[in-house]
Design brief:
The complex is a heterodimer. In chain A, 67% of the residues lie in helices and 5% in strands. By secondary structure, chain A is mostly helical. The radius of gyration of chain B is 21 Å and the shape is globular. The chains are: A mainly alpha, B mainly alpha. At the A-B interface, α2, α4, β2, α6 and α8 of A face α1, α2, α3, α4 and β1 of B.
């Protein structure tokens, strides 16, 4: 086994897996946009939105636990919103004293902080559901359907293709470094600057190998008749039934948005 | 069970963390710069998407005009190399480690426009496949890391290198400064976006983000120097090749300098006058509930540390600028001395 364990795709044949990648991408983007548009503290709407993502999770047969755990990983960024707790004006719940400062925790601040954290958690869950059920070639088809420039989509595809090769090379370098260097408990040899320079040399050689590999890849592409366009099998249009699924999901999200503004 | 448990427990666990795990990105060695969804207000996120789309479209046009088609696999493979390069870490102290972001090294290796595309691929893939950064917030992340990071490092690298007269050590000093500046200026942009969104007050976000990244930037600078030193020794042809590029890319050079200066001046200002940003947010109705409270319980001067922090940011910015300019001046002076010595 190599670094292909980085691929987060979980194979399956559930309803959500079988949906066309374009439909899934559109629903995901619409969901993230509606979560973002929800006003602060519209808790009933948040619960309904959570219901939406959990229904998709059930339809994907991935298991709620895995989804919840993976989505929690994005939460540390909530640190950035932590000052909201004590800088939003409003009725004070409780004064926290840190050293000589007295930080007033307000209700409005708490509500705003929890809203930001909850909204972020919901969006990440939806993105996890898209990634875990769509393999990259399908995702590239969806990106192309969104009219992303061809060069960019091709680059993402090539990057994914060679990511594992180069990551394996980087892992080999790390292993070589570890096996050749001694280290005490909690101590490392040399100065920080020296270690940084060695790491920099390793990064430089990864870049160099990547650069030279890209030239070889190009020669190989030419040898196979590359003429500037990347050909693939014709992409079939989205089936009518799946169009209805997308329309239904977007309709539900619109209703939730209206409810959220009204509540 | 799932791939995911394998990923967390398997032999590549630390690799998985370095690439896909945002938890790692808040450690001092990582980057708290990939903004997830929910932290930017919708209008900020959409505005940043517009900027990102225009910039990337322009970069695509420039690249397809300037580079031969030999470079077609270059962006993808270079982006993969940046990903892999980000996994190479070194221990700093007490269990924290530093690793590369790569905007500066990509820019030095292939020039600014190709670097914008490569970093866009990296940031986009991180958001789409590893949930490192949000989908709606992707526009902002592309602007911060690909556009601002690359243009600032290009501006710093080219101008310092020209001052040093293409000497080896001048190139190394320039790459350190480029790595450091790209991280710090991008983090300031990120803090301002959070502040305008009303997620994090400017008087906290700017000093905190700027301060952390002034430290992280040192690691980035050192790794960039190491990488450039190796490239200089192994493929001097690649390092010399961008002398001609520097002339063609005057626009992005000036743009990068202007961006760096505007952000370096604007963010301490915003941080000492957060009301300006709050006013913008209020205009858009995002602070409505703040108005609902009939009186302000916390006057601004309730936080004794705040004004000091703002002053500290400005002071730190000035010190940083002085250091960079000091180095540049020293380099220029020694070059002049050498030049006159040669002419004698």
């Amino acid at each position: 086994m190599h670094s292909n364990s980085l691929d987060l795709y979980c194979a399956g044949a559930s309803f959500w897996h079988r949906l066309d990648s374009r439909v899934k991408l559109i629903i995901t983007l619409a969901y993230v946009l509606s979560v973002s548009l929800m006003p602060v503290g519209a808790w009933p709407a948040y619960v309904l939105l959570a219901g939406f993502v959990f229904s998709v999770a059930v339809a994907s047969e991935l298991g709620l636990w895995m989804l919840v755990r993976r989505a929690l990983l994005a939460l540390p960024f909530a640190l950035a919103a932590l000052p909201l707790l004590v800088t939003t004006p409003g009725p004070v719940i409780l004064n926290i004293s840190v050293g000589k400062w007295l930080l007033p925790l307000t209700y409005a601040g708490l509500e705003r902080f929890l809203s930001v954290a909850f909204k972020s958690w919901l969006s990440v869950q939806m993105a996890v559901l898209l990634t875990a059920t769509t393999c990259l070639p399908d995702l590239l088809v969806a990106l192309r359907a969104l009219h992303l420039p061809g060069l960019l989509v091709t680059s993402v595809g090539l990057m994914w293709r060679y990511l594992f090769v180069l990551v394996d090379e980087a892992m080999r370098m790390l292993r070589a470094r570890e096996s050749r260097s001694a280290a005490g408990k909690g101590r490392s040899g040399g100065s920080v600057v020296w270690r940084a320079r060695v790491t920099g040399n390793m990064a430089g050689s990864v870049f160099l190998r990547g650069y030279e590999r890209s030239e070889r890849i190009y020669s190989a592409m030419l040898a196979r008749g590359y003429d500037g366009t990347i050909r693939s099998l014709p992409v079939e249009p989205v089936p009518a039934a799946q169009r209805w699924v997308a329309a239904l999901a977007i309709g539900v999200l619109l209703v939730l948005l209206v409810l959220g503004q009204w509540m | 069970m799932s791939h995911y448990t394998e990923l967390l427990d398997g032999p590549y666990a630390h690799a998985a963390r370095a690439i896909g795990d945002p938890e790692c990105s808040l450690l001092p060695g990582g980057t708290p710069m990939h903004v997830p969804d929910g932290f930017l207000s919708t209008w900020v996120a959409l505005l940043m998407w517009v900027v990102a789309i225009v910039a990337v479209a322009y970069a695509l046009r420039r690249v397809s005009r300037e580079l031969d088609e030999r470079r077609v696999p270059l962006f993808g493979v270079l982006a993969a190399a940046i990903f892999a390069g980000q996994m190479l870490n070194f221990s700093v102290t007490g269990g924290t480690s530093g690793h590369l972001l790569g905007a500066a090294i990509a820019c030095i290796l292939v020039g600014p426009w190709a670097a914008v595309l490569a970093i866009t691929c990296v940031v986009g893939t991180q958001a789409l496949l590893f949930q490192d950064g949000g989908l709606l917030a992707l526009g902002a992340n592309i602007v911060n890391m690909a556009l601002i990071g690359v243009s600032v490092s290009h501006a710093v690298y080219t101008s310092l290198r020209r001052l040093a007269g293409d000497k080896r050590w001048g190139t190394l000093v320039a790459s350190f400064a480029a790595g450091w500046a790209s991280i710090v200026v991008a983090s300031l942009a990120c803090a301002l976006e959070l502040a305008v969104s009303g997620t994090s007050p400017a008087n906290v976000a700017v000093p905190a983000m700027g301060g952390i990244h002034m430290l992280i930037g040192i690691g980035e600078g050192l790794i960039t120097v190491g990488a450039v030193a190796l490239l200089y020794a192994a493929r001097p042809d690649l390092m010399g090749a961008d002398k001609s590029k520097a002339v063609e890319n005057k626009g992005i050079l000036v743009g990068g300098l202007v961006l760096a200066i505007v952000l370096a001046v604007l963010s301490p200002l915003a941080s000492s006058h957060p009301d300006g940003l709050e006013w913008v947010a209020e205009q858009r109705g995002f602070l409505d509930f703040a108005r609902e409270s009939p009186y302000r319980l916390i006057p601004d001067y309730a936080f004794p540390g705040v004004s000091n922090e703002a002053i500290a940011t400005i002071a730190a910015g000035i010190v940083g600028l002085l250091i960079v300019f000091g180095i540049a001046m020293a380099v220029a002076a020694s070059r002049r001395r050498r030049g006159s010595a040669q002419s004698l």
